[in-house]
């Protein structure tokens, strides 16, 4: 089952959400 996800996948998801937040903040500031 896909319930147990590897650490690499989790890290990628966290990095993706973090990058999206940074992009949104920069867009709002500019």
UniProtKB/TrEMBL annotation:
One of its GO terms (molecular function) is transferase activity. Keywords: Transferase. It comes from the Bacteria. This is 3-oxoacid CoA-transferase, subunit A protein. It comes from Pseudomonas syringae pv. maculicola.
């Amino acid at each position: 089952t896909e319930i147990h996800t590897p650490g690499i996948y989790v890290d990628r998801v966290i990095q993706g959400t973090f990058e999206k937040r940074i992009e949104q903040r920069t867009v709002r500031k500019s």
